[in-house]
């Protein structure tokens, strides 16, 4: 279930970043695993999968974060379900780098009754132990988000093929043997 959600998120981010260049997502094959070797633009994963990276490959580094990283003005992607009180109950919050501000802004359905909301944080009432609440807005629409102690918080930053090294975990999409998009953990 978690892998399916991460794969969907990877493909969604890939589409939002324009990696598909007008090509249907179905033509991209998901790839995930631990990098075994990386040399001369060829990446081999522990399961034997092999693909190329090049100057066109978009690499996003993913790092764990805390509620301290969720500040007003930050552009975020929030995976959540709408609670009975109408508030979004966040399971994952990913802070985008400034270069990706506005990518995919809005709210759309995902699998398992989740919503993906790409929005700007307007206000953050959070503490390190209990979480708290965020006020966000997207396309002029305000919304409220509950952040609890189990919410996974991460920060995305732009990377490069040099970040894809042995021992790192990657998830992404490959077409014709070349990675279009990789998330590096």
3D structure, described in words:
The chain is mostly beta strands and 185 residues long. It folds into 2 domains: 2-53 and 170-180, no CATH class; 63-156, no CATH class. The protein has one helix at residues 2-16; strands at residues 29-39, 42-45, 50-52, 58-64, 75-82, 88-95, 106-109, 115-127, 131-138, 141-147, 152-158, 169-175, 178-184. It has a 5-stranded mixed β-barrel. A hairpin with a 2-residue loop joins strand 1 (29-39) and strand 2 (42-45). It is elongated, with a radius of gyration of 17 Å. The two termini are 19 Å apart. 30% of the residues are buried. The model is unreliable at 1-12 and 14-25 (pLDDT under 50).
Keywords:
185 residues; 5-stranded mixed β-barrel
Describe the structure in brief.
The protein is mainly beta and 185 residues long. Helices cover 8% and strands 51% of the residues.
Number of separate domains: 2
Secondary structure class reads: mainly beta
What does the overall shape look like?
Answer: elongated
Largest sheet: 5 strands, mixed, barrel
Could you tell me how far the N terminus lies from the C terminus, measured between alpha carbons in angstroms?
A: 19 Å
Order of helices and strands: HEEEEEEEEEEEEE
